[in-house]
């Protein structure tokens, strides 16, 4: 998610005997990349009994794994439960778990969620005569060239490239450089996808 938002989840079920009642308000906020998930209890004055808080968190965690965009898990989000209500007889852990999931989904949809993709740190070493073609190929893979340098008569290209664009790269590099190009790759970070690429991913998931 990219901004703070609030959401309400209310689960009420009446079926003959004992009903089900769970009602929570949650606030979600983005955390820095890599900080993970945090759940805060800001309930005051016993508006929701303490015993239902862990169940609410469980509902949020399960919803976190399912995500709100194309079914992808969510990362780096802070969730605070700050209000709600309960019923002396009908409230249960399962009702609060469902209400927690509902409130989380509602809040996240308002919090401008974005799809993230893994970005790889790539070092490519090629003979000078293949330098231009190699740069062009990396650019076509949405690569960002960070630095170029010389090493033992070869050209070294340091770049950041989305992992999704790297499939088949070894074969391409080999044929482009007559088998003389080499590369090393390691994970760098997650970054938001551009809107058009995200749209393609979402549509691909729907098919």
Assign the CATH topology of the largest domain.
Answer: Ribosomal Protein S5, domain 2
Main sheet?
Answer: 4 strands, mixed
- Average residue pLDDT: 91
Number of strands: 8
Share of helix, binned: 25-40%
Q: How large a portion of the residues is in β-strands, by DSSP E?
A: 35-45%
Structural write-up:
There is one protein chain. The protein has helices at residues 53-66, 93-110, 131-140, 169-176, 195-206, and strands at 5-13, 20-30, 37-41, 77-85, 116-127, 144-151, 154-162, 182-192. A 4-stranded mixed sheet has the order 1-2-4-3. Strands 6-7-5-8 form a 4-stranded antiparallel sheet, with helices on one face. Helices cover 30% and strands 36% of the residues. The chain is an alpha+beta fold. The mean pLDDT is 91. The protein is elongated, with a radius of gyration of 24 Å. β6 (144-151) and β7 form a beta hairpin. α1 (53-66) packs across α2. It has 5 helices and 8 strands, in the order βββαβαβαββαβα. The protein folds into 2 domains: 5-110, Ribosomal Protein S5, domain 2 (2-Layer Sandwich), CATH 3.30.230; 116-206, Alpha-Beta Plaits (2-Layer Sandwich).
Characterize this entry briefly.
The chain has 207 residues and is of the alpha+beta class. It has five helices and eight strands, in the order βββαβαβαββαβα.
């Amino acid at each position: 998610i990219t901004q703070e938002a609030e959401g309400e989840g209310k689960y009420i079920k009446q079926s003959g005997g004992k009903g089900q009642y769970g009602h929570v308000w949650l606030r979600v906020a983005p955390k820095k990349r890599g900080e993970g998930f945090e759940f805060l209890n800001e309930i005051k004055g016993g508006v929701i009994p303490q015993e239902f808080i862990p169940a609410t968190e469980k509902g949020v965690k399960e919803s976190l794994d399912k995500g709100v965009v194309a079914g992808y898990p969510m990362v780096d989000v802070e969730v605070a439960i700050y209000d709600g209500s309960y019923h002396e007889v009908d409230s249960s852990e399962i009702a609060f778990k469902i209400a927690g999931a509902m409130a989380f989904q509602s809040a996240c949809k308002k919090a401008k969620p974005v799809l993230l993709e893994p970005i790889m740190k790539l070092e490519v070493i090629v003979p000078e005569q293949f330098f231009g073609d190699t740069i062009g190929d990396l650019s076509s893979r949405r690569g960002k060239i960070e630095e170029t340098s010389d090493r033992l008569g070869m050209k070294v290209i340091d770049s950041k490239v989305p992992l999704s664009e790297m499939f088949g790269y070894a074969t391409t590099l080999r044929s482009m450089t007559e088998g003389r190009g080499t590369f090393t790759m390691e994970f760098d970070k997650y970054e938001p996808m551009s809107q058009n690429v995200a749209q393609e991913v979402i549509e691909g998931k729907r098919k």
